[in-house]
Amino acid sequence: MSITPKDVEHVARLARLELSDAEKDQFTEQLNAILKYAEKLDGLDTDNVEPTSHVLPIKNVMRADEKRPSLPIEKVLLNAPDEEDGQFKVPAVLE
Amino acid sequence: MALFDLRLQDVHNKLNNKELSVTELVSASYARIAETEPAIQAFITLNEENARLQASELDKQLQEGGERGLLFGLPAGVKDNIVTEGLLTTCASQFLSNHNPIYDATVVRKLKAAQSVTIGKLNMDEFAMGGSNENSSYFPTRNPWNTEYVPGGSSGGSAASVAAGQVYFSLGSDTGGSIRQPAAYCGIVGLKPTYGLVSRFGLVAFASSLDQIGPLTKNVEDSAYVLQAIAGYDASDSTSANVEIPDYTSALTGDVKGLRIGVPKEYLGAGIDPRVKEAVLQALAVYESLGATWEEVSLPHTEYAIATYYLLASSEASSNLARFDGVRYGVRAENPENLIDLYKKSRSEGFGAEVKRRIMLGTYALSSGYYDAYYLKAQKVRTLIKQDFDNVFNQYDLIIGPTAPTPAFRIGEQVGDPLTMYLNDICTIPVSLAGVPAISVPCGTADGLPIGLQIIGKAFDESTVLRAAHAFEQHTEHHKQRPQL
């Protein structure tokens, strides 16, 4: 499996990254090298092995569905690049 | 500098006897920073005004008497991916160059409760991705033992500032070795606790199933004290472990008689610098002389660990770093055409090369058609790697080997070659994948650069890890060596 510059463009789109031509070339080469290295995993038989997502035997940590105080709006908006009327402001989504 | 070489108990005795004040401790920290920072560059942000204010408050408390925190008055550095309310937290990224957190991480709250004084925020590889600090988007921190060399990473600032005597202790984070490897390169003690022991709430997430916060200190006793202060269940972290926290310092008995040590042959094989191997063998001889026994063991899936780690960590990172979109915090790109363009431009301008590379790798590994081949496969191999550790720990109390295959390398030596850079983590990554605790302690030098000994324990058995590390320290002089700055 080798990655083409076209694959890199596709993945960049998924990752919401805009790459320069130089970056595209570099990532194509480097990702190919890294994935080639990762191919060594193919040599292992894992048919009957369960995947590990977390080492702790913790599942579905629940808490009581009770109202709790949240951060005040002014504080939440403190780092907002742009805001209006207590909300984060972004460019228009609808035409 | 000598002030920060005192044992914690001695510092506290001096404070009690009025031979020393917190203001003097904090002033000593900033004086040392002024003196050494031009050469080391460990800090991104200093907290001087607040720290001095806090020092005078603590001095007042000292006068009045009453109960004091475990780390009372000790100058501390905090890695810049641990959020501190009102104190710039950049993750060494341009994306967060203006980010003033609106809350404290749980560990920061715990440090405040223990009454240490936060001196400033420490440099790191951007978003903790790297092993040299060369991926900081601000400047590379330098190794105090030789400023032509890297301090390691990603907690390079945390390690260098302790080694340079700028702070009494620091906090770092470890995903695949990011506390232990820089501790080894800088000749200090670095502990990665068991996954889940220390809350990750307020640690800017890189790879959530691996990230863990831990202390960097000049000796093992301090490591035990800091761990005591920061460990414990936290409902704000859903992967926090609800376990009883033992008294770690009481474990430091100096007695290792009868301990069974396994030494993985994979950690002393090809690719390991012979000087590192020699230092590790000498350390094992020390344990033998103290009544412990060691035998060669095998962690047969070690060779698959790096590939597994980079697939898993990058996948988790690509998901975690999706939050950086230029909407709620961070630097927003100017003049976006639309919302998608705002995301794209902000992320492309804000992230450095290594971060983009890992986001790309992770996005690819998780993308439709490749998920089973890469991500799921890596999760299965992780199970095999964890089983390697389980098997050895059925028969042994500890696993010991080197922390890193070589001492620190020169700045610039491995830039542009990510795969070689990744291979520096061969001895630390499997431990992270298994989630077990490990400490790096100084065990020698090569050409004036420190070598780290890695002591790995069973899950939640930090006590035995600390006990063994402390016993080694009691019978060797390596930890007393200081860089000439």
Give a written overview of the molecule.
The complex is a heterodimer of chains A (95) and B (485). Chain A is mainly alpha-helical and 95 residues long. Chain A contains three helices and two strands. Chain A has helices at 5-14, 21-38, 73-76, and strands spanning 83-84, 87-88. In chain A, strand 1 and strand 2 (87-88) form a beta hairpin. Chain A is flat, with a radius of gyration of 22 Å. Chain A starts with a helix and ends in a 7-residue tail after the last strand. With 485 residues, chain B is α/β, with parallel strands linked by helices. In chain B, helix 8 (274-289) links the parallel strand 7 (260-264) and strand 8. The radius of gyration of chain B is 21 Å and the shape is globular. The model of chain B has no long low-confidence stretch (mean pLDDT 96). The interface between A and B is large, with 50 and 69 residues.
Q: Output the strand order for the largest sheet of chain A.
A: 1-2
- Overall form of chain B: globular
Q: Indicate the radius of gyration of chain B in whole angstroms.
A: 21 Å
Please tell me how large the radius of gyration of chain A is.
Answer: 22 Å
Could you name the ranges of chain B where pLDDT drops below 50 across 5 or more consecutive residues? none
Main sheet characteristics of chain B: 11 strands, mixed
How widely separated are the two ends of chain B?
Answer: 11 Å
| Structure annotation, total helices of chain A | 3
